[in-house]
Specification:
Order of helices and strands: HEEHEEH
Shape: globular
Strand order of the largest sheet: 1-2-4-3
Number of strands: 4
Helix content: 25-40%
Strand content: 15-25%
Largest sheet: 4 strands, antiparallel
Radius of gyration: 13 Å
Number of helices: 3
Structural class: alpha+beta
Length: 101
């Protein structure tokens, strides 16, 4: 998986495939709302497992019933790369199982 920085157009094109995700400050991010703090905590735990599998880690912010995922690639000058989108897609596949909206 490429860790070369993506162009602004490539980022915009990829974001069209990930509703709810946005780009700001050289990062892609999304906030999920869940039914409870427990559900949000469980989603964070599952995201952590995926991050270890991919050897690519995001910033996770846990609120009472929210989880914010924010990611870029540090070893690509803090730019957005394919690795960030691969992680975002995996998170998207996990979120429905936790009732995330």
């Amino acid at each position: 998986m490429s860790r070369e920085p993506l162009s602004q157009k490539e980022i915009e094109d990829r974001l069209r495939e990930l509703p709810g995700w946005a780009f700001e400050d050289d990062r892609i991010f999304r906030t999920y709302r869940l039914s409870s703090h427990f559900a949000a905590s469980a989603l964070v735990s599952h995201i952590a497992v995926v991050q270890d599998e991919l050897n690519h880690h995001s910033d996770l912010t846990l609120g009472y019933n929210t989880v914010r995922v924010s990611v870029n690639t540090h070893d690509a000058a803090d730019s957005v790369t394919e690795a960030d989108f691969a992680l975002a897609e995996r998170v998207e596949s996990l979120a429905p199982a936790h009732g995330a909206a």
